[in-house]
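Sat 14:20. Reprocessing the chain from the morning session after the first attempt stalled halfway. Input below, unchanged.
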Amino acid sequence: LICSTCAVRCPGCKQYSAQIDTCALSGQRFCRNCLVQCSECHRTVGPGFYGTMPSGKIVCRDCVRLCAGCNRPAESILHCALCGEECCEACSGKCDVCGEIHCSRHIETVHACGHNVCTRDALACHIGHEVVCPTCSRSCGICDRPYCTDHHSACALCGKYYCSACVEFESGLCATCGAFALGTLPPID
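Finished this time. Tokens:
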């Protein structure tokens, strides 16, 4: 037992303690329950002078690395394959086409399929210029240009899907089926 006159009140937990130690960064005295050891430099630091990474790793304020892209603490710093800018796991993404890491300016998630596609590998819908996934999308069977799910139509005769530019709005026929005169086609068994 120790009296309150001789005990030191820990600034971290506000409890009185006789077992105290000093924070290597601030010089403040904390109880031993509040002090932790930095996993990088192995110095003992108190509350407010360290951070816990998503993996549970404890890093002191001097050893923590901030991401240049989002200014958040990061365990590992990555580099964008296109611009070389620093990024972390939180502000970067891996392209599902090329497999490289890209910063948030050079990667986009395609809403139709959920794939991450970098700006180098992404296709654009020739009608509305939306991002089209090269893995999941097909080009139009008539004009051979990429199109998104917002700009496709089914032909009323053959039932195939083409870009909406190749399916006539009024007749509902694709350019191929529309080239035939419907009344002149010979009957087929």
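The chain has a mean pLDDT of 87.
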